[in-house]
Amino acid sequence: MATLMGSESPCTGGKRRHCTGNIVTKFTASKITGQAFSRGTQLPGGLLQERDKRAKWHGIPALLQRLHESSHPNSDLSQAHSFLKVLSSQLSMEAMSFVTEDRKTAQESTFPNTYTFDLFGGVDLLVEILMRPTLTMQKKKPNMNDDLVKDCLSVLYNCCICTEGVTKSLAARDDFVLFLFTLMTNKKTFLQTATLIEDILGVKKEMIHLEGIPNLSGLVQSFDQQQLANFCRILSVTISEPDVGNDDKHTLLAKNAQQKRIASPSRAEVNQVTLLNIPGFIERLCKLATRKVSEATGANFLQELEDWYTWLDNALVLDALMQMATEEAEQSSTESSDESSLATSPLRHRLPQSMKIVHEIMYKVEVLYVLCVLLMGRQRNQVHKMLAEFRLIPGLNNLFDKLIWRKYTASNHVVHGQNENCDCSPEISFKIQFLRLLQSFSDHHENKYLLLNSQELNELSAISMKANIPEVEALVNTDRSLVCDGKKGLLTRLLTVMKREPPDSSFRFWQARAVESFLRGATSYADQMFLLKRGLLEHILFCIIDSGCTSRDVLQSYFDLLGELMKFNIDAFKRFNKYVNTPEKFQTFLTQINSSLVDSNMLVRCITLSLDRFESQTEDVKVVEVLSECCLLSYMAKVENRLAFLFRLVNIINVQTLTQENVSCLNTSLVVLMLARRKAKLPFYLNALREKEYAEKYPGCLLNNFHNLLRFWQRHYLNKDKDSTCLENSSCIPFSYWKETVSVLLGSDRTSLCAIASYIDEPYMDLDKDLLED
Fold first, then answer.
1. How far apart are alpha carbons 572 and 615 in whole angstroms?
2. Average pLDDT over all residues of the chain
3. What is the three-state SS of 128-156?
4. Smallest Cα–Cα separation from 509: which of 439, 547, 556, 443?
5. How far apart are CA 449 and CA 586, in angstroms?
6. How much is the average pLDDT of 596-608?
7. Segment 270-328, tens digit of pLDDT
8. pLDDT-derived band of residue 608, with 50, 70 and 90 as boundaries?
9. Closest residue by Cα to residue 39 from 50, 16, 23, 57
10. Bridge partner list, 453
11. What is the spatial distance between Cα 150 and Cα 143, in angstroms, rounded to a whole number?
C-alpha cells in the first residue's frame, strides 16, 4: 500500500495524507463487502487528479473514468478504445517484466500500475464492456471491434498474472467464463481468449461443465487444426482429475473416504464423455498427433508462429529455439569446412526450420496429453477403438526417428508427474507425453499388439509354435491393417533408444514403464521371449548392477519391468544366471533390492511366484537344471530369506501410510502367505512373525499391524468399483483364493492355527481398535 500512498509517512502527511489512505482503504473494503465505492468513476475527477501525483497512480484512475464515460451502450467505443490503448501500454510493461523475471509473487509494490487499475475497478469495467452485447434487448446485437476485444482480453490477462486475486475473482463469475468461450469463434481474438480462459480455469475451484458451453460441438468443429491444438490446453484442465499429490491427506484411506463423498461419475468424467460425443473430435486429434512438420506449414506460417509465441509468453521456448539453431549450425560446421557455405547459410536462415519443429512439437504435447487422459478414463475401450481405427500408433511410428526421437535430449531432472506443469523444454515434454501415451495404450489391453509390425507379429506366432503353446487370443484377433508399417514397430524402436539413454536419465523411467505396460496382464511367454531375444534382460541388469544408476524412480521402474519379464519364464532365469555370474554381482543385485523394498517388492513377488511354479514342474529337465544352478532361485528357496522379506514387508507399511505406491507391499506379503497356505505352512509363517516380535522386544506389534492392514484390504479390494482382475492376472492366483486367505487370517477363532489372533497374547491384543473409520 505504501507505493500507492506516496513516500510520506502516515504520521507526518497531515490531513490530506489521511484522505488518500481513506480512498484506498474504502476501495479495498468495497471489494470485500460489496458496499460503498466500487470504482474510480464514483469519485470527483478533480480529487483524483489532485491526489494522483503524490500517490503515484500515473493517471490510471482518471483514465478509467474517461474509459467508463466513453463506453456507454450507445457509443461507438472508438474513443473508449483510444483510452484503453493508453492504459494497455502502461500495464503491458509490468506484465513483460513478470514473465521474464521468474514469475515472482504478484504484489502491489512490484506491479503498482496493474494493482491501481484493479483497485479502481478497471477489471470489472472491461468485463462489463466485453459482455455488453449479450446484455442488450435489441434483436440485432451490436458488433464490437476485434482490436478492442483483443486489447480488453490482453489487459485482463496482464492483470491476472500481475495482481493477486484477479484470476480468482474472474473464475468465480461463471457467466463470464462461459461467455469467453463464445469469443473463440472469432479467429482474430482466439489466441487472446484461449490464454485468458486457460489462466482462469487453472484457479477455478469447481471444474466447469463442458456441456454448459453454448454450442460446444459447433465451436470445436469450426476450429482449424492450429486452434484445435491450442484448445487442447484448455481441455486438459477440464478432463483431468485434480492432482492429489503425495502428502498424508492422500493416502488410500483418505482417497476411499473421498470417493464415498463425491458423486460418481465425476465432473471430469462427464466432460470426457461430452468430448467423445463431438463428431470427428478424436479423428482430428489423431491427425494432429501424427502429421509431419512439412504438412503443418502453410503460407501463413510466420503469422501463425508470431501469434503462437505471443500466446505462450514463455522465454523457455525462445531459449529452445536458439539452442536448436546453434546445434544445427555447429553440426554444419563439423560436416563442412567450406567457409563460403557457412557464410551463405547464417544462423538466422537456419532458425525458421527449428521454429517449425518446436511449433509442431508444442502442439503435439497438448494433443497427446488429452488423448492420454481419455485413454485412462471410463470410456477407455471406446477411445481405444477410435485410436486404432484412425491409425494413431502407425502414425507415431512413422514420426519416431524424424521427430519424436530425432536426437538425444538430456533429461537429468526429476521424473515429471502426470499433471505436473514443469519448465522443461518442448522436446522433453513431447518425449514424456509420448511415452505416457504408449504406457496408457498398452496397459492391460489387447490393442497393445498394434505397437508391432506384421513381421514382428509373425515372430510372436513362431515363438508360440516352437514352444508348443497356443497363441494369445488378442494376438490372433489383431487387425493386421492397423499395425505399424516399416522395418520396425514402435515397441522395437523404443527398445533401441532405451538402451542408449544415460543411466540417470528420467526418460529411462517412462521408457521402462511403457515397455512394462506391454507385458502387464496375463503373462505371455511369447511376449517375454520377443523382448528377451532383443537383449532387454541384460540391459536391465546392467542398469541395476553395473551402470551406477542412483535414481530411485528409474530403479523402481526397472525392478517392475524385470519382474514382468522374468515371471514364470525359465529361460529368463537362465539368462539372469548367465549375466549375474559372480558372487559380487549377485550381492550388488541383492543390495539394490534391499535398499528400498517399496521399490523392489514387485520383483520379489515375481521371484516367489516363479519359484513356486517351477517347484511343481520337476518332471521338466530344463526346469530342474535351472532350479539347481540359478543363484536367485536358490536364494529365494531358503525359507529364512522368504521370512526376512515378509517381516520387512509387513513392517514398512501401516493403514495410515498406505498409498497407491506402497500398497503393493501388502499384496506381496499376501502372496507369500497364500503360497504357504497352499502347502499347509501358514501356521509356521505366522508363528515366525510372533517369534520375530518377541526377539525385537515388541510383542504384538507386527501382527496387530498386519491384522489392521488386512481389514483395510477387505474394504479396499472388495469394493464393487475395484477391479480385482489385475491381482488375479499378475499372480495367476484366483481372486477367490485371495479373499478366502484374508478371511482365514482375520478369523476370530483363537483356536485356529491360521488366524492371526491366535498368535497375539492377550495383553498385547489390539484388534478391536478401528483405525479404518473415516
1. 16
2. 82
3. HHHHHHHHCCCCCCCCCCHHHHHHHHHHH
4. 556
5. 35
6. 96
7. 999 999 999 999 999 999 999 987 765 544 544 444 444 444 444 344 444 445 555 55
8. very high
9. 23
10. 484
11. 14
Of 663, 672, 627, 664, the closest CA to residue 645 belongs to 672
Q: How far is CA 72 from the centre of its chain?
A: 46
Q: What is the pLDDT of residue 51?
A: 62
Q: Residue 147 pLDDT > 60, yes or no?
A: yes
Task: Judge whether residue 109 has pLDDT over 90.
Answer: no
The confidence score (pLDDT) of residue 13 equals 41
CA angle 684–688–692, rounded 5-degree value:
175
Report the alpha-carbon distance of residue 135 to residue 73 in Å, rounded: 10
Q: Is the pLDDT of residue 688 over 90?
A: yes
> CA–CA separation, 555 vs 225, rounded Å?
40
Burial bucket for residue 279 (CB in 10 Å: 0-12, 13-18, 19+): exposed
Contacts of 190 (CB under 8 A, 6+ apart): 183, 184, 227, 230
Count CB neighbours of 553 within 10 A.
17
C-alpha cell at 79: 474513443
Q: Please count the CA atoms within 13 angstroms of the CA of 514 that sit on its side-chain side.
A: 24
Amino acid letter, residue 519: L
Decide if 485 contacts 398 (C-beta within 8 A).
yes
pTM over 0.85? The answer is no
Q: Which ranges of 596-638 does DSSP label H, i.e. alpha helix?
A: 597-614, 621-629, 631-637
Give which of 419, 428, 302, 396 is closest to 356, Cα–Cα.
Answer: 302
Q: Are 530 and 459 in contact (CB under 8 A)?
A: yes
Give buried/exposed letters for 241-269 (b at 16+ CB in 10 A, else e).
eeeeeeeeeebbbbbbeeeeeeeeebbbe
Give the residue among 243, 240, 160 at the shortest CA–CA distance from 197. 160
Residue 774 pLDDT greater than 50, yes or no: no
pLDDT more than 90, % of the chain: 54
3-state secondary structure 546-571: HCCCCCHHHHHHHHHHHHHHHCCCHH
Write out the three cell numbers for 33: 463487502
Phi first, then psi, for residue 622 (nearest 5°) are -60, -40
Q: Which residues pair with 484 in a beta bridge?
A: 453
Closest listed residue to residue 90, CA positions, set 160, 18, 158, 146: 158
Please report, in angstroms and rounded to a whole number, the separation of the first and last CA atoms in the chain. Answer: 45
The answer to whether residues 97 and 161 touch, using CB atoms and an 8 Å cutoff, is no
Q: Are 440 and 433 in contact (CB under 8 A)?
A: no
Residue 721 has pLDDT above 90, yes or no: no
Which range among 115-119, 244-248, 269-273 has the greatest average pLDDT? Answer: 269-273
Cα–Cα distance measured from residue 192 to residue 310, given in angstroms and rounded to the nearest whole number: 9
Query: And the C-alpha cell for 22?
Result: 481513506
Closest-CA residue to 84 (of 147, 5, 18): 147
Distance, CA of 651 to CA of 665 (rounded, Å): 10
User: C-alpha angle with apex 265: 263 to 268, nearest 5 degrees?
Assistant: 110
Other CB atoms within a 10 A radius of the CB of residue 596 amount to 14
Nine-digit cell string for 695: 526377539
Q: Which amino acid is at 248?
A: D
Which amino acid is residue 397, in one-letter code? N
pLDDT at 562: 98
The pLDDT assigned to 25 comes to: 62
Nearest to 419 by CA among 247, 214, 239: 239
Give me the torsion for CA of 755, 757, 759, 760, rounded to 10°.
170
Yes or no: say if 413 and 508 are a contact pair by the CB < 8 Å rule: no
Ramachandran quadrant class, 57 (left: phi over 0; alpha: psi -120 to 50; beta: rest): alpha
- Residue 357 C-beta-side C-alpha neighbours within 13 Å: 23
Q: Alpha carbon of 485 to those of 218, 359, 385, 397: distances in Å?
A: 35, 26, 19, 8
DSSP summary character for residue 484: B
* Closest C-alpha to 67, from 111, 108, 135, 117: 117
- Check residue 324 and give its pLDDT: 52
